[in-house]
Amino acid sequence: MKTTIIRFRTYLHKFGEIFSLLLRHQQGEIVTWISRDLGKVPTLDTEIKAKQFGILLQGPLVREREYTLQFARYYKSIYPKSEVVVSTWDYYHAHKLKSKFERSGIHLLLNQLPTNSGRANVYLQIVSTLNGLKYLQKLGVTSAIKTRTDQVLANPLFLEVFLRKVHDVEEGGKIVVTTFNSFGPPSISISDMVQFGRLDALIHFWSLPDKEDWSRKIYADTPEVYLVNRYIAMKRSVKAADLGKYALSDLKEFFSMVDSNEVDQVWVKKSTLDIKGYWRVVRRKKLDSESFNGFSD
Q1: Which of the pair, 63 or 71, is modelled with greater confidence?
Q2: Which CATH architecture has domain 50-269?
């Protein structure tokens, strides 16, 4: 089966897609509607001690319906004793929302925008993430979930899903990622969108590249491939340029994975996806073994 997510930019497009999908439903296709109310979260039994666990949202604020603020408040409502940090850029819109974040008990970190953004903004991603992780470290946090300002883990029990990998994190020093935007052979890569692990491991992963590597522009691959390749090279104390392309066995050594559907990972990329609901169209199709999403531990 193949799942297609329909994204709409305007209400006219939205109703056009709805009408189109209703017709496809009449033709026998499976059409489902997913709705999420982030304002209604259950009271959880999971006890998270203060100053031990943090949640970092990294990237530019999503201005549409103040989604980033909604996401941060949602996390804080689930785990009120945990530190929630939003690491973004020093823009006017961020200053405008600063008081709303602070009243909700959320730390808003405003970073100066670097002049060098890197390929596909990878350097911006590194700077905002690393500064946010170091801020959590100052708050006394020892482990954290790193996510993005334009994504939400809509399953209120998402932490319990990650905690199933606690042995990998505590004993193996691994970083836990999600299957969303992660791919198996032949194009092996894992997503850097969501990560869970010890804070020292996450800081190591997001440490700034040295000037020599940056000037040589060894990050010719996609940001995901570049970041993972650099991290594995650091773990093995070799230069990233000398490591060569990593293999599936390398990923298993340093990373662990959870199903993104279990944590209900939702992406509002460029504010085009309405978080209150989106359509999934499922068609019967033979699975391609080479499109395997994720890897086994």
Answers
A1: 71
A2: Alpha-Beta Complex (3.90)
